[in-house]
Design goal:
There is one protein chain. With 181 residues, the protein is mostly helical. The chain contains 9 helices and no strands. Helix 2 packs antiparallel against helix 3, helix 5 runs parallel beside helix 7 and helix 8 crosses helix 9. The protein starts with a helix and ends with a helix.
């Protein structure tokens, strides 16, 4: 989303700090792996083989999810979301909030100014809550979760998360409406 890119460029200090984190994590991980290799080569090789097998199993799913996320983020515009998530949006607004939340990427704090702008333009507070709640569903982690916990578990957890977001959004709309009286 172009608006998200603009927000990211406005917060360069935070981005510079966060860019170092993954490299530090990678460096520490490699050092730990090297230490394990020095003390127990058999275990280190077993870990490397398991990592390779896991990567082979997950990679096709990650590629599909990545392509879908890029396409959706490329074509999803804030003005369109505002149009379909207004006060009278009905079921369509709830569905869009769920899908947009699931497919949204980036640090959550970068979304706050954009969500405030959407709220100021008429998006219901409950739909913003649903959007934020569904950011907890990370498509790129679903294949890994399914591998460890099973497809049934991941499916049930995802459905429960979506349903809970709808309950939370409804409660927030009710509270905000009551405060406005």
């Amino acid at each position: 989303m172009k608006e998200l890119s603009k927000l990211k460029s406005q917060n360069k200090k935070g981005n510079q700090k966060s860019k170092k984190g993954p490299w530090i994590f990678l460096g520490v991980s490699l050092l730990l792996y090297l230490l394990v290799y020095l003390f127990d080569k058999v275990k280190a090789i077993a870990v490397a083989e398991r990592f390779y097998q896991l990567s082979k199993e997950i990679l096709p799913f990650l590629i599909i999810v990545f392509v879908l996320m890029v396409l959706i983020n490329l074509f999803m515009k804030v003005s369109t979301l505002v149009k379909y998530m207004g006060k009278e949006s009905g079921l369509k607004g709830w569905i869009i909030a769920i899908i947009a939340g699931i497919f949204s990427i980036g640090a959550i704090y970068l979304w706050f100014p954009l969500l405030k702008e959407m709220k100021d333009k008429g998006v219901k507070p409950g739909l913003i809550a649903v959007f934020l709640y569904n950011r907890g569903i990370k498509l790129h982690w679903l294949p890994l979760m399914a591998l460890y916990f099973g497809l049934k578990y991941v499916f049930i957890l995802t459905i429960v998360t979506i349903l809970a977001s709808l309950i939370q959004g409804t409660i927030i709309d009710y509270i905000v409406k009551e405060k406005g009286k």
